[in-house]
Amino acid sequence: MDDLVERFYEPLYRFAYSLAGAEHHAEDLTQETFYLWAEKGSQLRDASKVKSWLFTTLYREFLGSRRRETRHPIQPLDESMDQIPASVTDSARALDATSIMSALLRVEETYRVPLTLFYLQELSYREIAELIDAPIGTVMSRLSRGKEQLRRLVADGAAAHESNIISLPPRAASA
Amino acid sequence: MTPEEAKFILEARRPDGSDDADPQMAEALAVATNHPEIRQWLADQNEFDMLVAGKLSGVSAPARLRERIVAGRRVGRSRSWWSMRRVLPLAAAIALLLSIGAVWFRSSGDNSVAAFGAHAEKFIHEKWDHQFDLPESDLGRIGDWVAKQDGPAPVDVPSGVAGSKMYGCKLYEWNGHKATLVCFSAADGGTIHLVVTRREGVSNPPGASPVHFSHGDFHMAAWSRGNRVYVALTSSPRAELEKVL
């Protein structure tokens, strides 16, 4: 169990943070996932599914916790934003981890969930499809749209950074 | 597979290349290899994706999280008490406990020691997020920390308690009075919860000798020492409580 915690608590936390947008909520979700593993993990017969089980459980816990909370609307993306500049990779390079996470948090949740899992590189697109219970084609489509949104936000964030504009913090625990 | 189909699939290719053996991905990669424009597009995609993945891996979990997970897992055993199959029997036990406690301590006020114990049980199972304010294995350091927070520190506890393996402590409030929860290991591997409050917060503080309550698999013992009232709770057998008190 300790090895499992050591191996997965950080990627699970990052996934939780991308869902919840708040450190304390991400900690709770990560901790709750390991509680559930301690209680129910022995029922899992296929050891190769442990990683998927942990990420899926965390995601379900997040969905469950959100149903119990007041929903806060997320600021929708402005689809009419300027064209993505060709130098978006340079923009990403200029941003730090926190800024990248902030940009990711502004991606619509439908796209953010598979996108975060994609960038964590822990699960294949097939495993992501199982986790969110969607067809593979849907996952690919969401990854494509999610990346498009992220690129816009990264470009936007870098522009704000260069102009010394203070970005608003991401909205927390949202849907 | 058309170039557009290949691009669509390659959007789902992890930048570390761990999907390259996937048949669908391999076919899409083959299309990209033979198509200069797609090859360049893929190189750009990959560079951006690697950057984002790398930055994301720089988001660190709080240092305390791993410690809390490991500590909480041990305490978490107690959560199984509260499985749905046990909710009703336990609720009945609490109701009985309250009535027994009221008679036992000849008090019916909300500030009775029985109410303090019942509240502690409810706090542990329903309100507490199972995160310690101070994950700590040394009771002395727990006491020092609690005292600094102006909380009721567990002082002058039975040697069996002091010698047990501690997990940490949590401060909370009970009827407007500060209370401290300390969790430690029972000899059988279960968990014992010790709650402490100041004597003035309890209308009928018990004597120095522990008074035991028992119903089903849920046990409590209450006693006073100095200016402190203590209640120990566990789902382990009553003998486990007796061993440390």
From the spread of the alpha carbons, the general shape of chain A counts as globular
How many DSSP-defined strands of chain B? 7
Q: Could you list the spans of chain B in which at least 5 consecutive residues all have pLDDT below 50? A: 76-89, 102-108
Structural class, judged by helices and strands of chain A? Answer: mainly alpha
Number of helices of chain B: 9
Q: From the 3D structure, determine the CATH topology of the largest domain in chain A.
A: Arc Repressor Mutant, subunit A
Main sheet makeup of chain A: none
Please report which band the strand proportion of chain B falls in: under 5%, 5-15%, 15-25%, 25-35%, 35-45% or over 45%.
15-25%
Defining traits:
heterodimer; A: 175 residues; mainly alpha; Rna Polymerase Sigma Factor, Chain: A; Arc Repressor Mutant, subunit A; 2 domains; 8 helices; globular; disordered C terminus; B: 245 residues; alpha+beta; Phosphorylase Kinase, domain 1; seven-stranded antiparallel β-sheet; 7 strands; rod-shaped
Task: Give your account of this protein's structure.
The complex is a heterodimer of chains A (175) and B (245). Chain A has 175 residues and is mostly helical. Chain A has 2 domains: 66 residues, Rna Polymerase Sigma Factor, Chain: A (Orthogonal Bundle); 75 residues, Arc Repressor Mutant, subunit A (Orthogonal Bundle). Helix content of chain A is 67%, strand content 0%. The longest helix of chain A is centred in the last third of the chain and has 27 residues. Chain A is globular and about 50 Å long. Chain B has 2 domains: 54 residues, no CATH class; 182 residues, MucB/RseB, C-terminal domain (Phosphorylase Kinase, domain 1, 2-Layer Sandwich), CATH 3.30.200. With 245 residues, chain B is an alpha+beta fold. The longest helix of chain B is centred in the N-terminal third of the chain and has 21 residues. In chain B, a hairpin with a 2-residue loop joins strand 2 and strand 3. The chains are: A mainly alpha (175), B alpha+beta (245). Chains A and B meet through helix 1, helix 2, helix 4, helix 5 and helix 6 of A and helix 3 and helix 4 of B.
